[in-house]
Design goal:
The complex is a heterodimer of chains A (329) and B (446). Chain A is mainly α and 329 residues long. Chain A has helices at 16-31, 42-67, 70-98, 106-130, 135-158, 162-169, 177-196, 198-206, 208-213, 218-259, 263-292, 298-328. The longest helix of chain B is centred in the middle third of the chain and has 30 residues, at 149-178. Classes of the chains: A mainly alpha (329), B mainly alpha (446).
Chain lengths: 329, 446
Amino acid sequence: MREGFSAINPYWDKDFFQFFSVFFSRLFYLLTGQLSLTDLASDEVQVFVLALVAISCGLLGVFLVLRKITMLANSLSHTILLGIVLAFVITRSLATYAGEEFSINFEILLIAALISAFLTTLFTQFLTHTVHLQEDASIGLVFTSLFAFGVVLVTSLSRSSHIGIEAVMGNVDALHVTDLKLIGLVTLINALAFSVFFKEFQLTSFDSVLATSLGISAKFFNYLIMVLVAMTSIGAFRAVGVLLVLSFLVAPAISARLLTNNLKTLLFLACSLGLFCSLCGVALSRHILSFYHIPLSTAGIVVTLMTLCYTLILVAKKTLKLAAKKRRA
Amino acid sequence: MNYSLFDFFTDPVFRAPTIGSMLMCLASSLIGVLVFIRRRSLLGEALSHATYPGVVISLVIMSLYFPDSEEKAALGILIGAFAFAFLGLFVIHQMETKLRVKSDAALCFVLSSFFGLGILIASRIQITHVSWYKKIQLFLYGQSATMTDIHILIYGALSLLIIAFLLLLFRSIKAIYFDVDFTKSLGMRVNFFENMIFLLLVLAICIGIRSVGVVLMSGMLIAPAIGARQYTHKLSLLFVLSGFFGMFSGFFGNYLSVFIPLVLQKEGEKTFSLPTGPMILLFAAFICALSFLVAPHTGLLSRSMRIIQFRRKCVVENALKTLWKKGIGEGAKKQAIFDGLKITRISSFFVLLKLVRQGWVEKLPSKNYQLTPFGFEYASRIVRLHRLWEVYLVSYLGQKVEKVHRNAEEMEHIITPELERELTELLKDPKIDPHKQPIPAKIGEL
């Protein structure tokens, strides 16, 4: 282990390009084992967490966009707040009951994801099937109410409105190595699910009738995607909040969609775009802090970069098309 | 610290927040009816989030140039929110039509991109201008507590504007929403009205975010309309009810957000405040949930009540039929009646009790039960309906004779006197059913 790394943040006072040189040299040390995970600087934790969020969301987002169910992701990413609060309350009271030290861990958060996905689906299905309410209104009513309930609970329990606000804003600066482990696990599960069931996801997304006739349950994969969305939102919750995770899901996917029609390329492009924006976002945030002494929201920067990426790709595509037209004429 | 509900309208501190948020909720719940009917509740979600950067920018500008003027700040925020929501609407429209991005992805993209931009700009001032930053954060979940009488004036005027527009446009709205093609053929400018309605939607969102907040605004748009829809099919009534529900939620949400912290607070603890938005929305959702349960036609309770009543009617009528088949004379044993009902002994006992109380059945000295003349008439009618339906199924619908009994077993409880008359006429008053059983004559012809 090299000494002196953890004493002061190595990114202190670095500009945009210096950030990358420091980052990649330290990444090399990390990979060769000269640097342990606990020695990571906060910027590195941010980069890794955002990158993992981007990869998870890139994979999921492509399928969400293709299946036209991004609004379901919106609904799920909101309701996880209630799931987290409920899981927190239950485990805390259980721990107090057993006289143990209270701590929140991965399993609890994943259970929270399941609870929230389950609750959302249950209520939405109840409204559409039993009360015969139209689908968009059922989704809209359920997730806003559950989210409101979560906000009220968390505000009353913590006696402050701080967590409620952080829930929608995210707070990259408060990230810790444990968050890295959580999102790493989530990314692993996502990658596993998509590599094992790639063909099934592809089929059910494009032709659910054919999938059903081949004996692949479209319903099961729909539910699986919902669970994955809930898990990913929980992983991204601390870093980017419940709303900006949508940008991670949708923006890279529709940007990549402008460039290719091939599903595998689409997945690859969406992930790398998200990765690129996360990396640049953290570097830019550090650059602005070093030179203008303004601490900007890193998540906000990343999302704005993603939007810019989409606009740029769009403009580039249009210009190329126009140029091609002119040449032909 | 005890406040009655009435104090919320008179107390100088509570008056403005209460009336202000009621007016805001009124405006949003009225426009929400249109959003709900059009199935565009997710558009409301996207647009309300799109206002956030507008709120942030205009709040910064207003605080820079007019630091002391409340009304200018409020107006500036309205204008900023309006501009950005409109920009969002424009982008969504362009993406859907020109770029052929699917509607849901376009909505999500605009929602999160605009919101991210808002967060980015807000973070610029979070250390340098803490008080502004706090004001901006209030718009996330809404906080009506800091409103003054000026706000009532501004939001009241705008809510009145929306109501006036709705009243003026009511006939056109009705025409457009229920038959677009017919309206177009009449030469009405449909596009103009649609744009007008979008304008009103954006305006209502901008008004509402002050007390409900950008995050939950979409819920507040549709929740009162969903509640109201459970009671009525009429558009005008839908507006009225939805407006009432909206105002109720506005008031009670406000009241509870003051009241709950007071209850939860323990001795010697720091005071905390609940944001109003979640409380308002939760109250609206509560109204919805209540409506799902108790609404007279569509409510779950009334629906299950109707089902239970029908089942009971079936059981009673089946018991009468069993007795009818025993004929008049020595009557039937209790056990024989119970066996025919296929329900638990205790409920069978109550059914029999009811039959006796209604005067359809009497207890003979031999402890057997027998139909009274009155009950006999009722039972004959059921048997008649059963057999008439069997005749109909066989001779008109070509069903096999051995298959018709089961269906007739259900229909005998449903057929109305009018249907009976029609059937009798159609089948030329048959005397015998497909199973060669006599059909009892119509009541009065015995």
